[in-house]
Specification:
Blueprint: H1 34-38, H2 42-47, E1 51-58, E2 64-68, H3 73-82, E3 86-88, E4 91-94, H4 100-111, E5 115-120, E6 123-127, H5 138-141, H6 151-158, E7 160-164, H7 177-185, E8 188-193, E9 196-201, E10 211-213, H8 219-230, E11 235-239, H9 245-256, E12 260-262, E13 268-272, E14 277-278, E15 281-283, H10 288-300, E16 304-310, H11 316-325, E17 328-332, E18 334-343, E19 346-355, E20 361-366, E21 380-382, H12 394-401, E22 407-411, H13 420-427, E23 431-435, E24 438-442, E25 455-457, H14 461-473, E26 477-481, H15 483-487, H16 493-499, E27 503-510
Parallel strand pairs: 2-16, 3-14, 4-15, 10-11, 21-22, 25-26
Antiparallel strand pairs: 1-26, 1-27, 4-6, 5-6, 7-9, 8-9, 11-13, 12-13, 16-20, 17-20, 18-19, 22-24, 23-24
Helix pairs in contact: 3-4, 3-9, 6-8, 7-8, 8-9, 10-12, 10-14, 12-14, 13-14
Bound molecules: uridine-diphosphate-N-acetylglucosamine.
GO cellular component, one term: cytoplasm
Pathway: Cell wall biogenesis; peptidoglycan biosynthesis
Region (Disordered): 1-46
């Protein structure tokens, strides 16, 4: 798949209506052709744009085997945006998952004139040396929340930026006040007009170091302000920042590119701005949300699987909940590979022990019930900023809880409208009562499955994953529509589940009418 291929160079011989509204101060205007602005990996998406994708899951089976975890979507999106800080040399990234969200981010970067090249196997090279515009494509920004993250690097590097209001999952109001107030604290003047945010450095040159306390540890605001402060003149202190591993990964990337950032992973960041950053090689962390989803897949089907690479420290709250429910989780410090070697006419198996890189390890998750250890028990769960339980795993865990014994309570405290999956889980037979931002889940009766398959619709990314998981535990067939939401955030989701033995199939029906919707 031409996931993130280079856009064609703008050619004077092509009809190239100026697409960008403004060009950078001090740089000669270079028109970007409509072709280059839209020629992103969406070639594939376009080919499928008139198709309705459904996942058909036959439930009741068990899973077994080993599954790979992809690079973190959210870290990759932040790092791709952060690559705009690099005015010299390309950022060579590894572990970028092949997702519709990362393709959209590539389209955002290309719309600014950056070169984005996909080299296969998760390697993506971003050369932002020749950025020619400070206005990213509004349509692409409207598709993903993370598109808005480019605001920080753009205004810090060029002294101005104009970015459309962001899209993303419809799970709450998702304001941007912290982004804007934070940038104002770094010397930016902000105007909102015609659905766009226009930010300019008040001194006409660039941002200056300052202090800002976030009322709430917003992930996106922290990431945007961190990139902005990395190129501001002087020292910036950001307090009550998000401590999510993806934020720390972005800090690590920026430091590799020459930034000076202290306190990554803690509540306070001290950033000494640099005049310029340079490209560097960087590997994205494994996706803790995908890992958590796969762990729930094992639990909800009462199976035993292993997965790698993971960073166990990122999964503490997830492992705590699964262990409390009755799952057994074993950490394997080393990968063990069985390799068949053909010597002459004999096939000989060698068992190789390979040291894992850094702190990446494999986990084995077992939820096999037996007369001795009984079945999984329900529990109380409240979503919180990291290191609390991640909101991005709330729907998947709710699906699991519908199959556990007893009464469970799920409290969503991060987003005010993240319960769309409840109605669909109820269609599958789940007994869930909603009260404000809390869900009360009455587990299964007796030993039979609590769920029975039927058509359901994914309304957002993680809620969609929850429906797939529920389908795997349900009796009969569950058909999930709205799969484009799931494709935003899970690389090869059904292929990975299939490899573990799940009975899952993608049905693609081509339609005359486009099925669209903001994911
Ligand atoms: C990121 C993740 C998303 C995850 C979320 C919380 C990406 C691309 N997405 O989203 O998967 O669910 O973190 O872990 O990394 N808020 C404000 N004002 C602001 C910004 C946010 O009030 O200016 C509020 C939001 O309304 C929400 C809360 O802060 O209630 C958390 O949002 P935030 O941490 O910003 O999430 P995102 O960065 O959008």
């Amino acid at each position: 798949m031409a996931l993130l291929s280079s856009p064609p160079s703008p050619s004077p011989s092509l009809p190239s209506p100026p697409l960008r509204l403004r060009h950078l101060r001090g740089l000669p205007p270079r028109p970007i052709s409509a072709a280059s602005a839209s020629a992103d990996a969406d070639a594939d998406a376009d080919a499928d744009a008139d198709a309705d994708h459904r996942l058909v899951v036959s439930g009741g089976g068990r899973l077994a085997g080993h599954v790979g975890v992809s690079g973190s979507k959210n870290a990759a999106l932040a790092v791709l945006a952060g690559a705009l800080c690099c005015s010299s040399g390309a950022a060579a990234l590894r572990g970028v998952p092949d997702l519709s969200d990362t393709r959209t981010m590539a389209a955002v970067l290309r719309s600014l004139g950056a070169r984005v090249e996909e080299r296969g196997g998760g390697e993506v090279v971003v050369d932002a040396g020749d950025v020619t515009s400070v206005e990213p494509d509004s349509e692409a920004i409207g598709r993903i929340r993370a598109g808005f993250f480019v605001l920080g690097p753009l205004v810090a590097r060029f002294g101005e930026a104009e970015v459309a209001l962001p899209g993303g999952c419809r799970i709450g109001a998702r304001p941007i006040d912290l982004y804007l107030r934070g940038l104002a604290a770094l010397g930016a003047v902000i105007q909102l007009r015609h659905g766009k945010v226009r930010v300019e450095a008040a001194n006409g040159k660039g941002l200056v170091g300052g202090q800002f306390h976030l009322d709430y540890p917003s992930v996106g605001a922290t990431e945007t302000l961190m990139t902005a402060a990395s190129l501001a003149d002087g020292v910036t202190i950001l307090s009550n920042v998000a401590r999510e591993p993806e934020v720390a990964d972005l800090a690590k990337f920026l430091v590799t590119c020459g930034a000076q950032i202290e306190g990554a992973g803690t509540s306070t960041l001290v950033i000494n701005g640099k005049k310029r950053l340079h490209g560097a090689e960087f590997t994205i962390i494994p996706d803790r949300i995908e890992a958590g989803t796969l762990m729930v897949a094992a639990a909800i089907t009462r199976s035993c699987i292993s997965l790698s690479p993971v960073i166990p420290g990122h999964l503490t709250s997830i492992m705590d909940k699964l262990s409390a429910a009755g799952c057994k989780i074993i950490q394997k410090g080393r990968h063990i590979l069985e390799v068949g070697v053909l010597l002459g006419s004999k096939l000989i198996f060698l068992v190789l022990k390979i040291r894992t890189l850094r702190d990446f390890v494999a986990l084995q998750v077992s939820a096999l019930s037996s007369p001795n250890n009984g079945d999984l028990q329900g529990f109380y769960l409240k979503t919180l900023p990291y290191p609390g339980f991640p909101t991005d795993l709330q729907p998947q865990f709710m699906a699991l809880l519908t199959t556990c014994n007893g009464l469970s309570v799920v409290e969503e405290s991060v987003f005010e409208n993240r319960m769309h999956h409840v109605k669909e889980l109820q269609k599958l037979g789940a007994r869930i009562r909603l009260s404000g931002s809390s869900a009360f889940i009455q587990g299964k009766r007796h030993r039979s499955s609590a769920l029975s398959g039927c058509p359901v619709e994914a309304a957002d990314l993680r809620g969609g994953a929850a429906l797939v998981l529920a389908g795997m535990a349900a009796e009969g067939v569950t058909e999930i529509s709205g799969v484009s939401h799931i494709d935003r955030g899970y690389e090869n989701f059904e292929a990975k589940l299939l490899s573990l033995g799940a009975n899952i199939e993608r049905k693609v029906e081509h339609q005359q009418q486009l099925m669209t919707g903001i994911a």
